[in-house]
Design brief:
By secondary structure, this protein is an alpha/beta fold. 35% of the residues lie in helices and 17% in strands. The chain is built from 4 helices and 5 strands; from the N terminus they run αβααβαβββ. The strands form 2 sheets. The chain has a 3-stranded parallel sheet with strand order 1-2-5. Helix 3 packs across helix 4. The longest helix is centred in the middle third of the chain and has 13 residues.
């Protein structure tokens, strides 16, 4: 799945998946590029979606990734930073519910 689709799956099909790995794009639930342009609103929307479901923060994991030279890096980074300020996406004991990873791999083509 593409990253936008992964964010939609988190929003609309949480009961079908436990692990989510959006790579290099933000969520568009509130509009195109909303995770980048409205990161706090997008993070709160996703948090509320989960709070209003039958699931808790212990029922899913998110690994969000992007390469630092990726054109979409800023899109996903803004959203993930906003998500980090919501307790539903924060660490639980020693294992984070939402984890960010990025790579610095030079591209030569």
């Amino acid at each position: 799945m593409g990253a936008v689709t992964v964010w939609y799956a988190l929003e609309h099909a949480l009961e079908c998946f436990k692990y989510f790995m959006p790579i290099s794009s933000d969520g568009w639930s509130l509009g195109r590029f909303a995770g980048m342009t409205n990161p706090d609103e997008t993070a709160e929307y996703l948090a509320n979606t989960i709070r209003n479901s039958a699931f808790s923060k212990n029922d899913f994991y998110i690994w969000a990734c992007s390469g630092t030279n990726d054109v979409a890096y800023d899109r996903i980074w803004s959203q993930v930073q906003a998500m980090a300020h919501r307790c539903i996406f924060s660490q639980q004991s020693h294992f984070p519910r939402t984890r960010w990873c990025s790579t610095r791999v030079p591209f030569s083509g």
